[in-house]
Design goal:
This protein is mostly helical. Helices cover 65% and strands 5% of the residues. It is built from 34 helices and 8 strands. Strand 3, helix 5 and strand 4 form a beta-alpha-beta unit. Helix 4 (98-106) crosses helix 5 (122-135) and helix 22 (438-453) packs antiparallel against helix 23.
Length: 678
């Protein structure tokens, strides 16, 4: 069972109507394995899917492994679809076979997977849904798309506009709800039967399309309902003449959005257009940096954003403990992007977006090994889709900047669980790149680090050797130390601790020079301390790992500090200090959970199980090993294929079985395997 039974986003506004559709979906989802909600943009497919998914999660017998939401709207590259789904499910992407790994993980799961906004990725979604449904008999997929996916066995449910006839129609209820949200003073409109009938007529003119009604409702704080109806009528007549080829519902939606656009102030329209380059949600600092320029000053952006939010053009996303973020519905963003093209600014603003996020990546790289590491983790996780879009753009427009950005994001790939995605981006960036300079050296090293976590030790060692040669030409001690870490770790994991010690030990570090608080030096200390454990030199390992931990604490760093705790625990076990081992590994797990490091959590649970088994608690050890097994399934290859890691885990299992017997062990292990991993 996965953590919290899913990841459904909160419903951001009151839900209106759709009783028949919800009843139909309540009947279909337990019986049909692929259901696709189709309909025009703005008709409410995503909101209906969210409400139906929430109902599925709240059933007397919900899907055993949860209800999971995958937002595909910001995704531009179909090659990253599997990684996006895996990430939404809470799976780290460490190994190389993306589709096969996801299918294998899902094979025994019973869950509902919602793929929201598939229309721009229909072929990729069709392929992945087909593969997953074939591999996982307990899987149900609910998709939203403006067109069918075209999969065998797909059940289509057309989402129609809200009923707009009658004084109590769902369309009128939605218009009233959004008008009251914009301004409580509009209650007087709906208390007057005559004006209510005008409002009902407006709903009919807008064909009951929810997005059109929301935009109109937001305007009732400025215009009377009669004036609003006149303006809509006039706009519809103009559009009916000029766009006779459009289907009526498309024409109505275009009318509502275009009319909202016309009612915006010139600077609001300019901001709307420029915001269309964002992939997903964004924060105020990014909006200022990307959208200001010319007549739009940076100090006006916040005010204009709030004004667009009041008009329902932009959606403000408030999350507890975080600065507000903003987003746009796809249909609204597409309109803005068309306007940006008419202004001739698409390339300029897209370049500005890409270089802003490239600069953000470099700032995060500089700050990662310091006291703001957790803040950077949260920031870069929130901006993951923007970083993807920026890097994708730079690959085509500025290859040198793409190499620099991909390398600067090493921590996102290596420490934050995006290994496969990172390897793909780094390989693409380095293809054809000039094989010299600090940016090339950094990207090459980052690529080797992703190979390391994927268990591709041969490739990691090869990239490490190439990094060594480039760093020597640059006469850069930090690059030399990072290369030494990479080669050392690549030979350590398959079982050659002596060679690892030669490459990364104190003598080698002294030979390279460099800063003792630099990432390269500290990573070499990690390899050294673990190699000493493998050699049975547990006291030496304790001193080395203790020094590493102190250095990390002085920096305010958490990710590497937690791995120092891990080695201290391994060394304590080697010295038969099981209490100390358990204390160190619990500290390690605390740090890894803060950063969402699934590999670190899986390693830590195995080690904690061995420590508590040594203390005589076989039942707890078995539960921990079961939970560790569940975490390893979200990571990839158990114990990374390392003989020493496997031996540590197996020692805990043997002790636990000996303490409580095989039957009790299996029962406790199964219980642990069902403990949430989220």
């Amino acid at each position: 069972m996965l953590g919290n039974l899913g990841n459904l986003p909160p419903e951001t506004a009151a839900f209106v109507g759709r009783e028949q559709e919800l009843s139909l979906l309540d009947d279909l989802l337990p019986r049909r394995r692929l259901v696709t909600l189709t309909g025009v943009g703005g008709v409410g497919k995503s909101r209906l899917a969210r409400r139906a998914a929430g109902a599925a999660a709240g059933r007397t017998r919900p899907p055993h492994d949860g209800v999971w939401w995958v937002e595909l709207s910001p995704l531009r590259d179909p090659r990253l679809l599997t990684a996006t789904v895996a990430h939404a499910l809470g799976l780290a992407e460490h190994t190389g076979a993306a589709d096969e790994e996801l299918c294998a993980w899902m094979a025994d799961k019973e869950l509902l997977l919602v793929l929201d906004t598939c229309e721009h990725l229909v072929a990729a979604c069709r392929h992945l849904a087909g593969e997953l449904l074939q591999s996982a008999p307990g899987l149900t997929v609910l998709a939203t798309s403006r067109e069918p996916l075209g999969c065998p066995g797909e059940t289509l449910v057309e989402v129609r506009p809200l009923p707009a006839d009658g004084p109590d129609s769902d369309a009128l209820v939605l218009l009233r709800d959004r008008a009251l949200a914009a301004s409580p003073e509009t209650a007087a409109v709906f208390a007057d039967p005559v004006r209510t009938e005008v409002a009902a007529g407006l709903c009919r003119r807008l064909d009951g399309i929810p997005l059109a009604l929301e935009l109109a409702g937001a305007r009732l704080r400025l215009w009377t309902v009669e004036e609003l109806a006149r303006r809509v009528d006039a706009r519809l007549e103009v559009l009916s003449d000029s766009r006779a080829g459009l289907a009526p519902r498309h024409r109505t939606l275009r009318t509502a959005i275009g009319w909202s656009h016309e009612l915006c102030e010139p600077l609001e329209r300019l901001l709307w257009a420029r915001l269309s380059v964002f992939a997903g949600d964004f924060d105020l600092s990014a909006a200022r940096a990307v959208c200001s320029g010319g007549p739009l000053r940076a100090d006006r952006v916040e005010e204009l954003l709030d004004s667009l939010a009041a008009k329902s053009v932009v959606r403000r996303l408030d999350r507890p403990g975080s600065a507000p973020r903003y987003g746009m519905l796809d249909t609204v963003r597409e309109f803005g992007h068309g306007w940006l093209a008419e202004l001739g600014e698409v390339r300029t603003v897209t370049d500005r977006h890409a270089h802003w996020y490239a600069q953000l990546a470099q700032a995060a790289d500089r700050g990662w090994m310091g006291p703001r590491q957790l803040d950077w983790h949260r920031r870069m996780t929130a901006d993951h889709m923007q970083l993807r879009a920026a890097l994708e753009h730079l690959l085509g427009s500025d290859p040198a900047a793409a190499v620099e950005m991909a390398g600067a994001l090493w921590f996102l790939w290596f420490c934050c669980g995006h290994v496969r995605e990172g390897r793909t981006f780094l390989e693409r960036a380095l293809e054809g790149a000039a094989k010299t300079g600090p940016a090339y050296a950094q990207a090459l090293w980052a690529l080797g680090a992703t190979c390391l976590l994927q268990g591709d030790m041969e490739a990691a060692a090869d990239y490490g050797e190439r990094c060594t040669a480039v760093a020597a030409r640059l006469a850069d001690p930090e690059r030399e130390l990072r290369a030494a870490y990479l080669v050392g770790a690549a030979v350590l994991m398959p079982g050659d601790p002596r060679r690892a010690l030669e490459l990364a030990g104190p003598g080698a570090r002294a030979g390279h020079g460099g800063r003792p608080d630099g990432a390269g030096w500290l990573l070499c200390r990690l390899v050294t301390s673990y190699a000493l454990c493998d050699l049975g030199r547990f006291q030496d390992a304790t001193e080395e790992a203790g020094g590493l931990r102190e250095a990390c604490e002085e920096l305010g760093e958490r990710w590497l500090c937690a791995y120092a705790d891990y080695v201290l625990a391994v060394a304590a076990l080697g010295l038969d200090r099981h209490d100390a081992a358990a204390r160190h590994v619990r500290s390690m797990l605390s740090g890894k959970r803060l950063l969402g490091d699934r590999l670190g959590i899986a390693l830590g649970l195995d080690l904690l199980a061995t420590a508590v088994a040594g203390l005589g608690d076989g039942e707890l050890a078995a539960r921990l090993l079961g939970n560790g097994h569940a975490w390893w399934r979200t990571v990839g290859r158990p114990q990374m294929g390392s003989p020493s890691l496997t031996a540590l885990r197996d020692a805990g299992e043997r002790q636990a079985r000996a303490a409580i017997g095989d039957a009790a062990y299996e029962s406790a292990f199964r219980g642990g395997a069902q403990t949430p991993t989220g």
